[in-house]
Amino acid sequence: MISDGELNALRESGERIRVVRDDLEGNDVIGIIVAWSDDQILVRRRNRRVVKLDRNYSIQLYSEPRKNISEL
Fold first, then answer.
1. 3-state class of 68 per DSSP?
2. pLDDT at residue 69, rounded to an integer
3. pTM of the predicted protein model
4. What is the rounded distance in angstroms from the CA atom of residue 23 to the CA atom of residue 7?
5. What are 17-38's pLDDT values in tens digits?
6. What is the Cα Rg of the chain in Å?
7. If you average pLDDT over residues 49-57, what whole number do you get?
8. Residue 23 burial class via C-beta count within 10 angstroms: exposed 0-12, middle 13-18, buried 19 and up
9. Whether the Cβ atoms of residue 9 and residue 66 lie closer than 8 Å to each other
């Protein structure tokens, strides 16, 4: 799970992230972090819709190559 400090740094920078939920790249959520709680994060997508996701998913920088769950 990603720490509060890392989430805050990503939120302040406004850098795009990728939330990897499974091995299919089409199921990834790409956007910026808006807020978080103890067990969930809020991600704003490019179309300005907000998605609430479990905080246990793998969060990666969008600018870096995608890593599958099996590689983590």
1. coil
2. 78
3. 0.88
4. 23
5. 999 999 999 999 999 999 999 9
6. 11
7. 96
8. exposed
9. no
Instruction: Report helix, strand or coil for 9.
Output: helix
Write the CB contacts of 5 (distance below 8 Å, at least 6 apart in sequence).
none
Cα-based distances in Å from 3 to 6, 10, 14, 29, 37: 5, 11, 17, 19, 11
Instruction: Name the residue with tokens 């907000």.
Output: 50
pLDDT at 72 over 70: no
Cα 4–chain centre separation: 13
pLDDT tens sequence across 55-69: 999 999 999 999 987
